Records
---
Amino acid sequence: MMNIEQIYRDADAFLEGHFKLSSGNHSQFYLQSAKVLERPDVAAKLAEELAKSIRTAGIDVDTVCSPALGGILAGYELARALGVRFIFTERVEGTMSLRRGFAVEKGEKIIVCEDIITTGGSALESAKCVESSGAEVVAYAALANRGFCKRKGSDKTAKPECKLPSDLPFFALEDFEFEIYDPKDCPLCKNGSEAIKPGSRGN
Ligand code: ZN
C-alpha cells in the first residue's frame, strides 16, 4: 500500500499553519494537491493506484469527467490509467457546463474525479451536468478524501455535510480528517495568529 500522506508531505503538499478555507472556516492544515500533481510521475503513480481499486471493484467506465480547475490533472491521469477518455466541466456564469466541444452519449458510463473531495459539491454539480445530457455516473473518485464522505473500503460513516449520493461508490486513496473551526471559535485565532488563504504567500 502507498503511504499517501508521506507522498503529500514529500511534495510539500501537506501544509501546516493557519489557513482560511474557501468555506470561510479556519484549519491548521491544508492539502495543496497541485504540489503533488506538479510531478507527472507521482501523479501517474497515484492515479494507477486509484485505477486499481476501481478495476478491482468491477466498475465499468467509458469516461472520466472532472470539474475544472482542481480536478483536471487527477482526472486526466485516472483516465490514462483506466484507458478511457477524459472530459471536464466548467462553470459558466455559475452553472457547471460542458464546453469546448465536449459531449456525452446517452448511457455513457462516467466516473467523476476530483483531486480532493471535501463535501463533494463541485463533483456533484459535474455529475448533474453530464447526467442532464443522458450519461450515467457510476462512481466518484478523488486522490484524497477530507473525511466528510465515506470512501469505499472505509469503515467510517459519511457526515451530513457530504453531498455525494450514498448509493454510488466513492474511491479515494486516503482519508485526511482535519479539524475545521468557525473563525469565531478558532483556537489559532485565539492564540493571536492570522489565518491566510492557502497559496497567497508562496504556500
Ligand atoms: Zn483562525
Note: The two ends are 28 Å apart (CA to CA).
---
Amino acid sequence: MLGNFSYCNPTKLYFGEDSLEALRTELPKYGENVVLIYGGGSIKKNGIYDAVVRILQESGKRVAEIAGVMPNPTVDKLYEGVAVARAHGADLLLAVGGGSVCDYAKAVSVSVHCDEDPWEKYYIRFEEPSCETLPVGCVLTMVGTGSEMNAGAVITNPHTHQKIGHVFADEKIMPRFAILNPRYTMTLPQYQMVAGIYDIFNHICEQYFSGDDDNTSDYLSEGLMRSVIHASRIASRDPQDYEARSNLMWSATWALNTLLSRGKSTDWMVHMLGQAVGAYTDATHGMTLAAVSLPYYRHILPYGVAKFKRFAIQVWGVDPAGKDDEQVAREGLAAMEAWMRELGLVMDISKLGATADMVEGIADATILLPGGYKTLDRAEVVEILKESL
Ligand code: NZQ
Ligand code: ZN
C-alpha cells in the first residue's frame, strides 16, 4: 500500500428485507423537522413512499417534501430545494430514491446555511462548506452510484452544459445512515438496472486501472468485479432473483465508499467523459459510461499492459498460455465487451443523443484528470469521443 492515508466511513448501513424498520431507531436521533426528498414518482407507485411516510408520522415528525428530483439533478432544482429546507427549518434531509436523490440531498445539505451561490462555491471553485451542514439519511431504491455511503454529489448545470461531481472531503457529508432493501430495487426498469450494474463495475475499474505496485485494494476490486459479473447475469435473466439483487446492492455500496481507492492514485476518466456526454444529452449515467468505456480502455491499454493482462486473467478467466501480454490484455477487453452486449448496455454515444457536431463541446466539458495509465490531452479526448459515436 503506497502513500499515507486515512480511512473513516461513518455511514451506518441497514441491509435486508426488513431494513426500513431501522428508520424508527434512526429518526429519534434528529430534530422534529424532516424534509422528505424523492424523484419523479416511482416510490408512490411501488408503495415505498407510503411505508416511509407512515414511519415518519408515527415518529412524530413534521414533514415537508421536495418531490420531482430528476435523474441528473439540476442546479435550478438545487436552488428550489434549498428554499424548501430553509423555510421548513430542516433538521434532517431524508432521501428516498436512487443516486440522483441521494446526491441532491447532500447538495442541499451543504447549501442550506451557505450564504454564497452553491454552484459557484462547490462546483466551480470546488470549495468545502464553511457553514453548518444538515444530516442526510437515505433509503435507497436504485443500485449503482454508491451515493448511499459516500460524500459525492453530482449536479448538472444545463445552461452551461456542465455536469460536475464534488466529492466532499468531510465525512460528515456522507449519509448518516442508509437503508438498503434489495426488494426495493426490483421495480426498476431493466434499462436502469443494467445501467446501474455497469456503473458499479466502472467505479471498480476507475480505481483498479492505476499503479503498478502490489496493492490489497486491487485484490478487493477483482473479487467485487467477479461478484458483479456473476450476479448481473442472474439478475438480467431473472430480475426478481433476491440473491443476485442483494449481491449487486452490497457490491455497489462497497465499490464506491472510499475503500477501494486507499493507497491508489485512481483514474476516473471514463466518468469525466461520461459526465460530459451527460451534460449534453441528459442520458442515463451508467449508459454514458458504457458508451465511452471501450474506446477509452483500448486507447490507454498500451500504457498499462501489465494491469490489463491481470484484469483479463483474474476477472475474465482468459487463458494466457502461448499468448503475448498485449494479446491477453486485449482478450480481457473483448470478454468485457461481450458481457456488456449480453446485458444490453448502450455502446455508442450517438444512441444516447450525442451527434458529431457536439464532439468539440463535449471535449471542452471533459475535465482532464491525471492518475490513470495515460493522462489524456484534448486531442485524445476528441479521438475517443469520435470512436464512441
Ligand atoms: O425519479 P423516479 O420516479 O424515482 O425514477 C427513477 C429515475 O427515473 C428510477 N427509479 C429509481 N428507483 C426506482 C426507480 N424506478 C422504479 N423502481 C425503483 N425502485 O430510476 C431512474 C434513475 O434514477 P437515478 O437516481 O437518476 O439513477 P442513479 O442511481 O444511477 O443516479 C444517477 C446520478 O448519480 C450520479 C450520476 O451522475 C447521476 O447524476 N452519480 C453519483 C455518484 C456519487 N454520489 O458518488 C457517483 C456516480 O458515478 C454518479 O456520477
Ligand atoms: Zn458512476
Note: The two ends are 38 Å apart (CA to CA).
